[in-house]
Write a sequence for this structure.
């Protein structure tokens, strides 16, 4: 068994798209990033790589590489899952936090869990997602940024 923890933070900007867990969120604010900036998937990728002691998302998918420009973060997750499986592991469960002031995403949580369940191939009941605000404090509270964390348990086959 191995535990991994990942975190991702991105700037928010009017007119950009907002994807969380591969699901497009209806919002006037979106994520500024080299890829689609999906902080949920980025945090999961970092958690997997951390559990495997393989570095981080920037090591495998550098933002300086133009082939990743505007790419769906689902690609990063699928490639990381292949590495994990090749090393003899599978994900038992994932606990995800999303911290943002706006928009409220509670109505999207089931869809995000469902989408991640399909991509990762684990039961939806093994994926937890919680959303919270920053109570108007700091860059998140001022709607300038968004953050996600992911903690997961890998089991060896």
């Amino acid at each position: 068994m191995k535990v991994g923890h990942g975190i991702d933070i991105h700037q928010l900007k009017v007119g950009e798209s907002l994807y969380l867990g591969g699901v497009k969120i209806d919002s006037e604010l979106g994520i500024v990033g080299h890829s689609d900036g999906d902080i949920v998937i980025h945090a999961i990728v970092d958690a997997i790589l951390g559990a495997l002691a393989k570095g981080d998302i920037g090591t495998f998918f550098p933002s300086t590489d133009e082939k990743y420009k505007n790419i769906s973060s689902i690609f990063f997750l699928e490639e990381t899952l292949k590495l994990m499986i090749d090393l003899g592991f599978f994900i038992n469960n994932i606990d995800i936090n999303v911290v943002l002031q706006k928009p409220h995403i509670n109505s999207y949580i089931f869809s995000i869990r469902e989408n991640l369940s399909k991509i990762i191939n684990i039961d939806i009941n093994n994926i937890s997602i919680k959303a919270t605000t920053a109570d108007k404090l700091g860059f998140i509270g001022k709607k300038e940024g968004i953050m996600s964390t992911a903690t997961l348990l890998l089991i060896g086959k």
Remarks:
- The first strand starts at residue 2 and ends at 14.
- The chain has five helices and seven strands.
- Residues 49 and 59 are 10 Å apart (CA to CA).
